[in-house]
Amino acid sequence: MIKHLNDAQKKEYAYYLTLVSSVLNGTEPQLPYENCNLDHIRQISNDTRMDAIFDEAVLMLSKKYSVSDKLLSYVKNNLNHWIYIDTMMKYEIESLLKCFDEGKIYNLPMKGYFLKEDYPNSFERSISDYDILFDINDIDRIKNIFKQNGYKFLQNDDQQYHFVKAPFMYIEMHRSLLKKNDKNYSLLENQLEKAKVRDGYSYSKEMTLEDYYIYMLLHSAKHFSEGGIGIRMIADEYVFYKKYSDQLNQKYLSEQFEKLGITLFEKKLRDISLKWYSKGSEVKDFDDVEEYILLSMTLGRVDVAVMSEMERQRVNTKTGRKKSRFANFISSLFPNKTYMANKYPFVEKMPILLPYSWACMWCRRIFIDRNIDIKKGFNNRTSYTDDDVSYFNYIQTEVGLSLIHISEPTRPEPIS
User: Fold this and answer.
1) Mean pLDDT of 337-350
2) When you count CB atoms within 10 A of the terminal residue's CB, does the N or C end of the chain come out lower?
């Protein structure tokens, strides 16, 4: 498992962060360092889903630096693509929220819907879906509204209902902000009732800035502890805190962070965001947590996510004993009743149908989703070592999050 960047990669990431900073702060981008390969930097922007920001930075850079015609043509076309996507998604989501207003259906857009508007330009913050909180009692009317607006209902579990509309609209309707088995569920319960109606709407709501920030951090912490968070989430932290820090009730936040166990996590993310993106900042080096984030692409690494889930599943929470890795591998192919019931509710009512749910899951993945890579999947489940788990634990302790117990976390040696 890759744990560190080499010197060349560090240099590329450091320069890339200065480009992002220039766009977020409206300043002139720094000239590339000697022998800088802008195509490599472009690939980083693609991997981290911050293409539009890179495109803007290169266009500004081209006014005082010789950018290749090929790259210049690419970024112009790509930026137009993101502006078009952003415009169309705005139209679609606002049309839907208008229908909710007409149907007198309370709703609470979450995460990306608001975050996009905190950036200098909304197209700079790409999203793959919209998340909206709703009252489960309205689900039949909601399904009907989606159908009338040309959406297809995909599936649902205990927490979410999924709707899609070609070519790029994907909406997740949430019954709750967190899953009921989440230890912090009660602290963010009833947000739909607590939230206030937004200006310009009759039934669409918004959380307080404090509760929104808390939810944003809990979402980031979940990804961080499962597979990692990428550069984009740190940019979210920066633009939010830069815009609203003087409006936040810090006393309330401190109390809530303490209850939720994310005091250190919030401080670490805030410190990193200021280090990377503050106006005129110039990153010289990265610590272990920063490297973990830089290696996490957009929403984490699959190999890390599989390892962390596999190791958590090994531990019997009642006895503290661990399954063998082989037994755990088999369990990952054929999950337990609780896991399968979230995807197939009939399992909860008729446990005897558990084997049938496994067949449904694998048939869907193989013939419908077609998201199976047998070789990679096998490798991710069997190739990690105790040292990899120890490294993961070490990173979690650095930000105050929970561990997966296998050995004492130790700081691995960097690449020479």
Assistant:
1) 87
2) C
CB 311 within 8 A of CB 293: no
Per-residue confidence band for 19, with pLDDT thresholds at 50, 70 and 90: very high
Q: C-alpha distances in angstroms, 413 versus 286, 394, 416?
A: 14, 12, 8
Q: DSSP state, 232?
A: H
- Residues 409 and 387 sit within 8 Å (Cβ to Cβ): no
Q: Which of the pair, 241 or 341, is modelled with greater confidence? A: 241
pLDDT level of residue 371 (50, 70, 90 thresholds): confident
pLDDT at 173: 97
Output the six-digit token pair for 227. 């597979």
Stronger pLDDT, 49 or 282, i.e. the higher one: 49
- Rounded to an integer, what distance in angstroms lies between the CA atom of residue 95 and that of residue 93? 5
Amino acid letter, 138: D
Angstrom distance (rounded) from CA 328 to CA 333: 9
Q: Are 29 and 61 in contact (CB under 8 A)?
A: yes
Q: Report d(CA 135, CA 115) in Å as an integer.
A: 23
Query: What mean pLDDT is predicted for residues 125-141?
Result: 96
User: What is the spatial distance between Cα 303 and Cα 295, in angstroms, rounded to a whole number?
Assistant: 11
Residue 152, helix vs strand vs coil: strand
CB 390 within 8 A of CB 308: no
Check pLDDT > 90 for residue 68: yes
pTM for the complete prediction? 0.87
Cis peptide leading into residue 167 (ω within 30°): yes
Distances (CA, A) of 287 to 5, 45, 275, 411: 11, 21, 12, 11
Helix extents (H) in 182-228: 191-194, 209-226
With a CB cutoff of 8 Å and minimum separation 6, the contacts of 118 are: 125, 236, 239, 240, 243
178 — phi, psi (to 5°)? Answer: -125, 160
Look at residues 154, 101, 157, 99 and name the one whose alpha carbon lies nearest to residue 129: 154
Both tokens of 370, joined, read 């077609």
CB neighbourhood size of 238 (10 A):
24
CA angle 266, 268, 270 (to 5 degrees): 65
CA neighbor of 275 nearest in space, from 231, 328, 215: 231
**pLDDT exceeds 90 at position 33:** yes
